[in-house]
Amino acid sequence: MLPELGQFALILAMLLAFLQAVFGIAGPALKRDRWIAATVPAVAGQFVMMATAVGCLVASFVNFDFSVRYVAENSNSALPLFYRVTALWGAHEGSMLLWTLILACWTVAVAFCTTRLPKQFSARVLGVLGFISFGFLLFTLITSNPFLRLEPPAPDGIDLNPLLQDPGLASHPPVLYTGYVGLAVAFAFACAAMLEGRTDPVWARWTRPWAIGAWAFLTCGITLGSWWSYYTLGWGGYWAWDPVENASFMPWLVGTALIHSLAVTEKRGLFKSWTLLLALVGFSLSLIGTFLVRSGVLVSVHSFAADPSRGNAILVFLCIAIGCALALYAWRAPALKSSGGFELTSRESFLLFNNILLVIAAATVFAGTIAPLIAGAVGVGALSVGAPYFRPTFLLPMLPLLALLSIGIHANWKRGRLSASRRALLVTLGLACAVALAVVTGVYAGRHFLAVVGLVLGAWIILSSAVDPIDRVRRKLTLSRGVLGMTLAHVGLGIAVIALSVVEPYTVERDIALANGQSANVGGYDFRLIGTRDVDGPNYSATRAEVIVSRNGRTITTLYPEKREYWVRQQEGTKAGIKNEYGTDLFVALGDDLGAGRWSMRAQIRPMITFLWLGPVLMALGGFCALTDRRYRLGRSTAEALEPLAAGAKERAA
Amino acid sequence: MTRGPRVARARLLAAGAGSLLALALLCAPAYAIDPAQMPTPQLEARYLTLTHEFRCPVCQNETLADSDEPVAGEIRAQIRKLLLAGKSDREVRDYMVSRYTEFILFKPEYSLRNAWLWLAPLVLLAIGILVASRIIRARSMLVDQDGEPVDDDLILEPEPPPASDAIGGSRADPIVDPRARPAVKSASAR
Amino acid sequence: MSARPHVIRFLIPIAAFVLLGIVFALGVKHSPDVGVIKSPLIGKQAPAWSLPVLDGTGQTFGSKDLRGQWYVLNVWGTWCEPCHEEHPELLAIARQASVPIIGIDWNDDDAEANDFLVKQGNPYKIVTTDHDGHVAIDWGVYGTPETFLVDPSGTVVFKTIGPMTPQVWQKDFLSRLPPQLLEHPS
Q1: Fewest Cβ atoms nearer than 10 Å: which of A97, A269, A579, A600?
Q2: What H or E segment, with its residue span, contains residue C24?
Q3: Are residues B123 and B98 in the same domain?
Q4: Domain end position, chosen among A149, A165, A181
């Protein structure tokens, strides 16, 4: 019964989403107070129904209900409980369900946090979110229903893909989707502002915390994914420029541009139409990413089962949602004008550079990602685009961006007055150069030009963004959460840049073949194979090797890489042995039995890789920290302050 | 359509499970660990660069170096053979393209056909510089006309004090938390 | 700034999106073919090859022996499930058409391959073995089964990837063969 209940709840959720869309969008337009008032209950109802549907599917997984097709395809009687729950998002149908549940969560959050905003405005925001939710639920029900039954029921399931049986999978998709879907809120705020014909930049203030929150989640999600594919061999390392990775990276780049341009719009009332456009494009890229990943139009390691009917369905929804939003933009944006001025060295200019460069980076990634599609559409034959294209072309806008960042954070609004910070800039740059030279000549052998550039830029960003907060703390002045968050995020970026500049050129990676007792030297470390033995897991059997890593005769650690054979799918999985030593990863993965007791193995020494995760985590923390800034808190006094203003007047008129 | 032994095995399994379940991931990524070494470091470096620039023709978007497919292993062996025979990188690339088309190249050729792709970042950058310079020129003429300065404090980004609540539009902003004010004052007193 | 270009500027995003939509729609249309490599050999001279014959006599067989005649080249292996699937169809073709089917047994165990052919029947005029796959790679093979049609001048006329079916044979192979080869020789 549970699957039927779940499906019923899903249908109800879709209907409620439809009502939410109609009430929210048509209510303010037709000035129907009751409709406006009905949006919030529709949101609550939709959330309850979504939670019920997801709960039913989880229950089917937990109870081994192999009469449900999706459960039979993605679990097995030997699958541990933890993975039976996370198997919910192990394939297309369930992950769509997760997507819509997360959208419902965001919608509820919006409904409860915007009670102090003008009623029409928040109703419109909820209406737009309802429309998106309706589209996705309709798509899920028609093309990807996870509650379909099997007749007759399968005797047992064919198991969750072994690669997904990992703690990384438990966290990566939900966090990533939270970021993806969170961009829908900024999208909805922008649409609501346009529907209302607002020409003031107030909506930027309202949108900012949501955009920052979504961005922070997206940052976490991408980092988790990167970390997961790094230690789970088979996904091309921590970043392979795969279409699916790009699909999450493009919204991140645009989202980063958005949170910066929102600052300008909020502060100076400038870039209004540009900020609106970024808010629309950010979420549009999320939608396009969903399309690219799930329609089978591109070849990807992470691709879901390809299905043209799904592709067409998402495409139709995509065209309606993005098309309407951009049409609205073409209609409303020309009315947005601002008369504010700024100089070349002002903060506005630097944020303008930031936006342009980030958008260029996103556009470049986009061009490379869809190039095979374009080649196919034009009919000029097959084309593949991979890391060798993305690496250099991505650096082109990124290097100037990183260089300008360090200067830009010292610029004042409107008139810049950089001369006041010249000394700080020069000193930090000098220090950064010294650090870079010391690292390149002293710590790591081999001088790579890009490594030096990256180290200088990264170190400069960290030092430069720390100058003012430190100065402020020394003078016992207050440091707002917003500024603290910004500083954290920039320092995080600097750390990530430094880590990348070291990891890329100085990683030593070699495939070796060892017999018991033999050792090989990789990057100055000795890897000695002690032996292998068979171990059994809950649903797999594995060969576990014992590898002692030593340096100059001093034993550092013993690693136990495993090669697993998952019983049900008879698929192989690897579990690498990793030891972190001062941020450097010593990494061994077990390959094949070469016969005569010899095993192939991959050994890696990855310096500073830990900082590659730490940097983005700091960035996300910075985002969360900025969220808690008091000016985003809409207290009672704020609501009172609202009353006499235009918004309040509208309310009275309605 | 199925290709390669791994896929074949997956098919067998799905059939063996007694249902018509289609596997979500037909071609499961598995990592190739290939301890074959080239005799000289130079050849090894060229071999690694080349195998990372080719994609495995069977598997989903994996490089030839990473793919565990038997075909990939055979193609790697063939590339080693060609390199050992003294073939240049160009010749190896041509060998692959003439058999597997440009689909096999993760690094698109610098050809007229792909010119738009390689030039896209440069063109975008040029457009970006042009747009930025036009905006800044236009805006810097307005600096003296729009009256009052925006508060200088770059670090605190405080609520604009009423006096400096400029034409920029901040005045329309009703969401001002009055509790934030004292902090602002001390900051702008700097 | 005149009003007109000002408005047009805001139409750029939607115009770009319309173009993108068209590309995506075409992409969905072509999506079943994503990842299928069209053989660049079609219309070109087949690569020269020579391989040991499976019968274990140590003889070799290759392109030299096939000059001047039409032939079908089938790359297969006993480890390949779709090859088992297409086997009955190959047997049927061998019975009906007078064009020889040449097999390349790829990356396989000779004993197993012989065993398979004895049990399931042998549609091949000659089966050769390609243990390290170098000939298969020369032919641009990346999956099995793959079946080529080669004309008397040694030009590759057609290639199909995946199991041979009566439809494919009728539509893509028979239609390309000269009529005199269609009847059974006997």
Answers
A1: A579
A2: helix C12-30
A3: no
A4: A165
Angle between helices A449-474 and A387-408 (to 10 degrees): 30
Q: What is the pLDDT of residue B30?
A: 62
Give the C-alpha distances (Å, rounded to integers) separating B13 from A152, A155, A307, A570: 18, 14, 22, 8
Predicted confidence (pLDDT) per residue in A451-474, tens digit: 999 999 999 999 999 998 898 889
For residues B97 and B165, membership in a common domain is answered with no
CB contact under 8 A, A234 and B25: no
Summarised one tens digit per residue, pLDDT across range B13-46 is 333 332 222 333 344 556 778 888 888 889 999 9
Confidence band of C2 (pLDDT split at 50, 70, 90): very low
Among A407, A531, A383, A402, which residue's Cα sits nearest to residue A456? A402
B5 neighbourhood in chain C, CB within 8 Å: 77, 79-80, 144
Q: A234 falls in which pLDDT band (50, 70, 90)?
A: low
Cβ of A154 and B183 within 8 Å? no
Query: pLDDT tens-digit profile of A532-555?
Result: 999 998 889 999 999 999 999 899
Q: What does the pLDDT read at residue B10? A: 37
Domain hosting residue A598, numbered range:
508-606
Interface membership of A277 toward C (CB under 8 Å): yes
> For residue C104, which residues of chain B lie inside 8 Å, CB to CB?
none
Q: What is the model's pLDDT at position B189? A: 35
- Locate A419 and state its tokens: 């001369």
Chain B interface test: which of C137, C144, C146, C168 (most B C-beta within 10 Å): C137
Q: Mean pLDDT throughout A115-143?
A: 94
User: A251 in a domain, yes or no?
Assistant: no
Q: Is the dihedral of CA A329, A344, A479, A470 positive or negative?
A: positive
What is the pLDDT, as a whole number, of residue A355? 96
Q: What is the model's pLDDT at position A306? A: 60
Nearest CA to A296 out of B168, B19, B124, C28 is that of C28
Which among A318, A330, A377 is the nearest to C26, CB-wise? Answer: A377
* pLDDT tops 90 at residue A629: no
B154 CA to centre of own chain: 33
Residues B12 and B92 in one domain: yes
Residue A192 domain-assigned (yes or no): no
Domain boundary among A140, A165, A190: A165
Question: DSSP characters for A588-641?
Answer: EEEEEEEETTEEEEEEEEETTHHHHHHHHHHHHHHHHHHHT-GGG---HHHHHH
Total domains present in chain A: 2
Q: Is the pLDDT of residue C57 over 90?
A: no
Domain identity same for B8 and B83: yes
Shared domain check, B153 and B63: no
Q: How many domains does chain B have?
A: 2
Residue A120 domain-assigned (yes or no): yes
Contacts of C37 in chain A (CB under 8 A): 382
Q: Give the least confident one: A56-65, A623-632, B156-165, C52-61.
A: B156-165
Q: Distance from first CA to last CA of chain C, Å, rounded?
A: 86
With CA atoms as reference, the chain B residue closest to C37 would be: B100
The pLDDT value given to residue B65: 87
Distance from CA of C144 to the nearest CA of B (A): 6
Is A269 contained in some domain? no
In terms of domains, do B62 and B134 share one? no
- Owning domain of residue B12: 4-104
Q: Let me know if residue B123 belongs to a domain.
A: yes
- pLDDT for A532 equals 92
Is C76 in contact with C106 (CB distance < 8 Å)?
yes
C5 touches chain A (CB under 8 A): no
Query: Residue C5: its pLDDT value, please?
Result: 56
CA distance B98 to chain C (A): 6
